[in-house]
């Protein structure tokens, strides 16, 4: 697989209130040179994607916004794809960017914006088939692992973690959403193409294992043997109590030792991930009824989804003094609740993006108002932007991903415009989205090459192109 080494341009283009630091120089005035690899150096090329880029760019008036879109939207294809045929089946390995490993979560999210095009591009369709096949292999290897290597001889930097580490596993953080993303990808592919060829014996074994893992991690009878312990000075990098997590009172919810940010949970019942699990189980119910004709397993998925949904309604929805009925972020079943959000997906903000709620649902609206208020400890305001942060990046960094999701779940044109202005003002002249940036200094950011954030930005622009095209005719 070709590896990309991005050169970060030492420039910060003036945008709104953003001022270029004295030690930085613009490459050229009013000219934005593409940051994409040369055509011959790209890992994967899709004709359908290239055509869509041309169509979208043609209506974007803001030159810098157009440049950002062209750099970001194809970034996953350009730089992270390793596609080949293995045992006469397509196989797609997708690294996350500057970390040379594949996350189940990130890999689905990275290719997600390309899925609407797969019926137009057979090559792109094969790529998605290949990722489904690769994710199935990963689940069958270890359903508790969050990230994997293609080269099974590669030694993980986390080899000293105190847990089972099989060859091919990069990290073994148990996160509910990792398995949900496997279902999400397969279901979307099936819904778009109606192709059932992906539903082979291995896929069936993997889905059975996913449901078994979900049921085990309900921990009704303390049956989970999962332990994760890392020698670290960071309190968010390993669960307490010997890697088993804080106590929970079983109520039907699934325990998650880690959040989608890869940070350990405070209370193990992570509500956005449990809501995601309900969605995934209902998707599996449909797949098994329609494709496998297996009503027994379909009903098992339905019953588990119903149980979790009932527990969410009973234990995770609470009356807030200022915001009315809203979701807690994490709970423990004893009555303790954590009120915050993380900029990653799934998050409370992303529930409308994932399809768990409509943006107009009262419960979601109340929760969203809380998330964008000073009551949320991880909603940050600075000189250049405001937005959701994450314990993962500290007290002062805002995640572009959070700003993007805010725009994607908004029904307010002015709010979307505000988000676009902030995204334009904070990419630090690099032409790409990052993991997090300092609220008062966009030049202080983490991760030069974070393909998911890049592709998600592209997804936002395409959403506007389809639903709110007039916003792309504005100058930001």
Automatic annotation (TrEMBL):
Superkingdom of origin: Bacteria
GO biological process: carbohydrate metabolic process
A family per Pfam: Glyco_hydro_125
SUPFAM superfamilies on file: Six-hairpin glycosidases (SSF48208)
SMART domains to which the protein is assigned, alphabetical: DUF1237
Database matches in InterPro entries: 6-hairpin_glycosidase_sf, 6hp_glycosidase-like_sf, GH125
Protein name in UniProt: Metal-independent alpha-mannosidase
Species name: Yeosuana aromativorans
Lineage: Bacteria, Pseudomonadati, Bacteroidota, Flavobacteriia, Flavobacteriales
